[in-house]
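Note to self: user wants both folds in one dump. Writing first protein now.
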Amino acid sequence: MLDEIEGAVQGHRDGHGFISRDDGGPDIYLPPNEMRAVLHKDRVKARIVRSDRKGRPEGRVVEIIERSSQPIIGRLLQESGVWLVAPEDKRYGQDVLIPRGGIGNAKTGQVVVVELVEPPALFGQPVGRVKEVLGEVDDPGMEIEIAVRKYSVPHEFSFSCTALSKTLPDAVRPQDHANRVDLTDIPLVTIDGEDARDFDDAVYCEPATQGRGKSASKGWRLLVAIADVSHYVETGSAIDIDAYDRATSVYFPRRVIPMLPEKLSNGLCSLKPEVERLCMVCDMFVSLDGEVEAYQFYPAVMWSHARFTYTEVAAILGNTRGPEAIKRKERVGDLLNLHGVFESLQKSRKKRGAVDFETTETQIVCDENGRIEKIIPRTRNVAHRVIEEAMLAANVCSADFIAQSKHAGLFRVHEGPTPEKKEILRGYLKATGLGMTISDDPKPGEFQAIAEATKDRPDAMQIHSMLLRSMQQAIYTPINSGHFGLAFDAYTHFTSPIRRYPDLLVHRVIKAILQKTRYQLPALPTPGEAHAKLARRLEKGAAAKGVSSALKPAKLNAENTAWQAAGLHCSANERRADEASRDVEAWLKCKYMYEHLGEEYSGVVSSATSFGLFVTLDAMFVEGLVHITELGGEYFRFDELRQELRGERTGIRYAIGTRVQIQVSRVDLDGRKIDFRLVHAGQDLPLRPLNEKTGANIRSKQDRPNREANAKNKSPSTAQAKTAKARSAKPVKTAAKSKTVKKRR
């Protein structure tokens, strides 16, 4: 008898699917005929029956263990007198039939939330009823309403949580000062972005000396004060349960879904200027070489003496006699001290060989109606780096404190590249003729050395991208394996308990150690999906896909299992938040680019694949696909080692970093994808002047295409247009899935 394998179904917009196995093995391919009776996120048992033409294990569903309880979001349509909902998430490969009595107050074309009443069968579509009407597809903020439900992001606090938050005080009370150090006379300040609403960290630095006499050493006393959320959020309380369920705040353009109720996140726990606030402090002595030679943790009461922005601090550090410095003259000396400890910590970073790739993050600026006005890069200045180094130092001290105390807790672990990724990277570096490679057991310094040696090369972008892609994703786990990218033996998250649940747990553990007790994770009313996944994987003896490989059977006691499940839950919800945010940004960018069909832009190739090139535009940092069929009338072969497409007849190459001129040809709002047409390519491509309003290249009348003719030529077929008209406000379609690479610490 063939082995039966359990796992969760992952649908695909093209009609097929995969089973993500509980035992951590390779995904099992499900052909379209096997997907007729199941839906995305169902749990099933399957048998492997063959390997498909791509060598993937192909399965057959033998039993449906559990139907997904997640509601489906889509548009209500009427076709030939039949009501149905076309899912917004195309991983659900079937429309949902709605009986006339299940429509409620919904109207044709509205976006609705559907609850299934009958699952799909081999010869029957799923049946559901309208549970909630979200509104019209073009309503401002609709993309966010869809995303929070599509990714099951908790967006409403429970009644118990809201009621409990109302009982909290409005300010720090006299009794709250008990057993706390009074730091109200220390000029701690907050430094954040212009649009920040909650302030969870404050800093102060002064020159200091450690020791006496000849053995005395000079350095810096650095204080990092973090909002003491754990004082107000008790373990197992209604607020704590909601916070654990969310695990993180989720950030969208124009909207934030906070982890904590607003009374805490923007009130009691926000380190606003000139009000008392409770905090946990990491008090460090940093040598002139950037080594943290001593530290201590303690609860305190603070008074923020100023609220700075990154832009303001950078201006002051750049000119201590400028107008910004004159306005804040009483704090200029403190800021210079912060810059001094930053320079010391930078020495330590360089000595460790920590990986430090500069990446460009973007900010979407919207008007009052939610329409994109512009997309701009988030520039990192010296003030960002000053705060980053201070936070890294506090996080390292937190990890060391927990590890030295032998107390269970969550570490932020970033392991080195897998053997497969090492081989791919070695092959690529060899193909480029760089003369540098990585060892069998690579250290972060090897990656940084390659990045430094290649930063001035024309293909630097391509090389740095490959270095970044070879690394694994950081996770939360109770088993400390160090942080590869930052080159730390132990690292955790301590500095953002307002918006990250792991930080709140770290605060509780540190407090327990200070009080010489032991913190116990609460028994949750409902363990949750992460706990169930962990139980299944541990039961099968697997330690893959988020379950630390360091968990040996001998260590699987109740405490370790609880912490491992908490780490798995927080890691999964962090990825969920990222996916939801990216989904909204992608929709907004598609909406924006639809208004610029036919426009020409300059850009660079950000990724090469077997089916085409992904290009990122210079003006707006929007990524789209130039399909391989748009590259000309010759055959192109994908070189995996060099990560490039090469024409067999002409030898022309398209690799990461190649400059191109493109035209926006298609936009698919449903699929969150943009298609480009290649106009010209070459590293010496002249940059045309940009239209200040749209970012498009200014063209002469001779080379300006007729937008109406272009739209007509690029229109979908009659059948496609008919379906698109009913299901999408913008009837256009593209071919392949976009990819993004994001650095995660």
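First done. Writing the second protein, which came from a different request thread.
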Amino acid sequence: MEVLRERYELSCGRIREIAAAQEVAEDYRDYFKKVAEFILLVTDSCDNRGKITELEELRKENRALYADILDAHYAKSYANPAYACGKYGLDMGRLLAFLYTEIRAMIPYAFEQALEDLVIRMELFVEIYNAFAYTQSEAELLTLPEKAAIPNTNDIRDTLYWFVSDYSETASANRVRSLVDADCDFAVRIVEESDLNDLRYLYRYGEYVSPDVEKMAQYLGSLPDERIQLMADTYTEGYRMGFEKAHIDLGKKKTVDIHYMLGFERVVRAAIANFAKIGLQPTIYRCENHIFSKAVVRKKGYFGADANKQYLYDHKDDIALFLDKKLVNRKLEVLRLAYEAVKEKAAVYAGPAVIEVFGELPFAPVSKDEACCLDAGQQKLSAEFKGASQNIICSYINEEERSFTIIAFPVPSIGERFAEIFDETIKLNTLDYETYRRIQATIIDTLNKAAYVEIKGMNGNKTDLRVALYPISDPGKETIFENCVADVNIPVGEVFTSPVLEGTDGKLHVSRVFLNELEYHNLEIDFKDGMIADYTCTNFDSEEKNKAYIKANVLYHYDSLPMGEFAIGTNTTAYMTAKKYDIANLFPILIAEKTGPHFAVGDTCFARSEEVRIYNEDGKEIVAKDNSVSLQRKTDPSKAYFACHTDITIPYDELGSIIAYSKAGDAYPIIEKGRFVLAGTEELNEPFDR
């Protein structure tokens, strides 16, 4: 620790010198001065932890740390690749924008007092600065022209590359340990020890605290204890039921990792107490956004508000600056070492318990030519890494012995009727379990007779799909669909299966949908034998950009993905809630998937736990858990899984029909013109009529 403190002090001293006097080419002086000043702002926050006590001063400090990437300033920020490239050219601009972005990742480390994570970035900045200063001094000595005073971009890239490679081991070890080790309790202590009626606690994390985050904390602080307890009970009971339904022994587990947005600490504190009663300790880690761990469109851990979603989007593929086979192998090696170091703790990790939020302003990203993007070879490497890293994780955390739960709540930015919508969401999350179980059992009994299902759109929706179903051998003991009520996926309301890929053909179309916080207009996906054959949308003027957008954020750079799930959502109450408050476009997929049929691309719902025997409450075993791709797990697991699963829902008002057909050609209409028509499901139409 003394050595780290000495390196920290030396770095601070050098960066103060850089901020005061520039020894680089004139065009680059402003860049190094501003980045140096920002680093000093962060180190001041580190050195002054606990000294700023007034709420308004804490707000002022927080805004200063994030000011440069807020909308008002981002256009002329060096973190904006368009601005940096405009000043320094494409190659050097991208490298310097990346460097500043990595420096900005120091903020939360200052609040955690994580000196090593601060020091390695400060030393990197000094090293890059010295390269510019040395080149400038050489140019002056030899009276060379100004352009000769700039170091070679390849040399700068190499320095950044070795930073990424060298510190991958430390970053991976810290990340994995924070997932499974309850002793990593920075956030737990904030939740457990703070006066949650005093908003100052929000500023202990180092995350961006927007007015919306404060309003969320204030609102939950105004609710009676029994209301908070109901929310926590629904959440933790769903988690417990997930283990019970899958016949997994929860008693063997010791830790649960909790995901939440700042402002929900009252619910989290109550949930921690509930988990303790079933023998689980919390692990709560930060949602990271640096070169070693990016969480742009799917947040994991605890997180504050997004200071600027475009900033995050601009840098989601910064790894393209460095990604090669050697780095992939290095990252896989250190991931395995990280899990090996904590393998005993990983074995007793139970799985995530997630609180999602919705209601934030919709985000449709701007595609910038200056932002880094993976080339074709890197896309394949990225997909390869995604699958291989998941294989490593699953060798230490057995998917057949863990579970999860997800619940969602709105945030104040959803609008003036936030309090009403919040109350309605609590009602959605606590709808009658037995009613939906009974109705969904009726749908499943009908689908069990079918060989395939046809789904067609209406009102401009071009969906025309045929989904092949798994053939049942013993109708008295087997079922194709799982009856999903309120356990791992809250709220209630769907039946789902893994479709047979061969014979699953046609077009899926949705006029507007949000997937992992990104907006898509007129998303179309064509399937041939269950695999994605083509895709497009109308987000951008360029078809090339539309396809690239989908490939990066839906296909995750794979050339194709299978249809891993077909489901029928039955939660018409949720659908009408969306209509009533005009928030359908703001619903998270967790709720949206219950408001119509949905189709997941990627892995099946049973990925890596296919051997676990699962039963519906009628005693019938769910037998449709594999497809021809996932079955390759028995011969070549690297080809069986994709480590992704994205649900795409057709809303009822775009749904012309869902009709099941038996092998003999008998038709069983389930939905026609957006209404349930199967006998025994009429009750689901009541919210439409109300």
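Dump finished. Worth passing along: The radius of gyration is 26 Å.
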